[in-house]
Write a structure and sequence with these properties.
Distance between the termini: 64 Å
Shape: elongated
CATH topology of one domain: Immunoglobulin-like
Order of helices and strands: HEEEEEEE
Helix content: 10-25%
Length: about 150
């Protein structure tokens, strides 16, 4: 025997709350777009970055579309990785007027504490198709070690 239970539909006032949530999101977007009153904007959480670990290394992938390779700076100091750079504001026609402007421009800087000690002498960084990939080999003392178990008393 199967027992079914009906779940009541949302009351009529639910769409009003959706409208309020839409207004809240739009206000957040407006205040986020105000930026710095000096006229120089810095990106909020730009670039989006993934940090992951393999047995031998820490790998970082950052999405940095529209940034020239020569405008990127990657450094490691005391097991802290810093990715910095700048993205130029795209110039539109003098006759154009924006209906929406969401792409950030200006300087950015993100720093991360690395979860293990790394070998700073062998760090490699590649930039292709708007993706920065940084390979940070683990220091010898941070890599997993295979221990041989011997027999005997």
């Amino acid at each position: 025997m199967t027992l079914l239970r009906r779940i009541a539909s949302f009351p009529d006032w639910a769409p009003a709350y959706r409208d309020l949530d839409d207004v809240r999101r739009e206000l957040d977007r407006v205040f986020d777009s105000l930026g710095d009153f000096t006229g120089f904007r810095t990106a909020g959480v730009f670039p989006a970055i993934n940090v992951f670990e393999t047995p031998d290394a820490i790998r970082v992938r950052a999405e940095i579309p529209g940034v020239r390779r020569e405008d990127l700076e990657v450094s490691v100091e005391n097991d802290t990785l810093t990715v910095a750079g700048k993205r130029e504001m795209t110039r539109e026609s003098d006759e154009a007027s924006f209906h929406r402007r969401e792409r950030e421009w200006g300087s950015f800087r993100r720093s991360f504490s690395l979860p293990v000690r790394i070998d700073g002498n062998h760090v490699q960084a590649r930039y292709a198709d708007g993706i920065l990939t940084v390979e940070l080999p683990k220091a010898a003392e941070a890599r997993p070690k295979q221990i041989t178990v011997s027999a005997g008393a």
